[in-house]
Design goal:
By secondary structure, the chain is mainly α. It has nine helices and no strands. The protein has a single domain, classed as Glycerol uptake facilitator protein (Up-down Bundle), CATH 1.20.1080.10.
Length: 227
């Protein structure tokens, strides 16, 4: 298993189980259950593939690592290609599974896609959606960079990062469905229709800006532990 295969499988798992929880079991487990599905999927893959690729499974995280000086641009590009491919494959599999239910339609039930505005979740506006995704991704990246930095307890990194993702979902599902991950947004949107595709830009731009800002902050030494 090389790094790109690991990133493909990790992102596939996150999207299948996270979005799958929303689409297949959302009525039974509610927002809390969906939040934990995303976080637990990340925790599992962190310990499953973390030693192979670092378990970014998120283009914003890979670019945040570049901004922090922990990864080259070239390697980040190969990660991002694998991550997006994994998310698209997972969304396709989820659609096949969900379509096995007689009354399921993408139009009526969705595919766990992100969004904002009229007809989506609590109908928050675009500015609220952008601010949430920007700030949440920034804080998520701070947790990731801090938990994986020298001196941090390495055995607990996956747990800390996964629980941070749970907390982000608990707050943000009603706002945007929570992306903080462009690949997670791209996969379902490609099958969910033009409205979801038309809003994708926000779930690409805001997470990348948030993660890059956290990376720059760490690279500056402002959040580096004193020796």
């Amino acid at each position: 298993m090389n790094k790109q295969i690991a990133e493909f499988l990790g992102t596939f798992t996150l999207v299948l189980f996270g979005c799958g929880a929303a689409v297949i079991a959302g009525d039974d487990i509610g927002l809390t259950g969906i939040s934990f599905a995303f976080g637990l999927a990340l925790i599992g893959m962190a310990y499953g593939i973390g030693s192979v690729s670092g378990c970014h499974i998120n283009p914003a995280v890979s670019l945040g690592m570049v901004a922090a000086g922990r990864m080259s641009v070239g390697e980040a590009i190969t990660y991002i290609v694998a991550q997006v491919a994994g998310a698209v494959a997972a969304a396709a599999v989820l659609l096949m599974i969900a379509s096995g239910k007689a009354d399921y339609t993408v139009a009526a039930n969705g595919l766990g896609q992100n969004g904002w505005g009229a007809g989506y979740q609590a109908e928050y506006g675009m500015m609220a959606a952008f601010v949430f995704e920007l700030v949440a991704t920034f804080l998520f990246m701070v947790v990731i960079l801090g938990a994986t930095s020298a001196g941090a307890p390495a055995q607990l990194a996956g747990l800390a990062i996964g629980l941070a993702l749970v907390a982000i979902h608990l707050v943000g599902i009603k706002v945007t469905g929570v992306s903080v991950n462009p690949a997670r947004s791209i996969g379902p949107a490609l099958f969910a229709g033009s409205a979801a595709v038309g809003q994708l830009w926000l779930f690409i731009v805001a997470p990348i800006l948030g993660a890059a800002a956290a990376g720059v902050l760490f690279r500056s030494g402002m959040l580096t532990a004193p020796e």
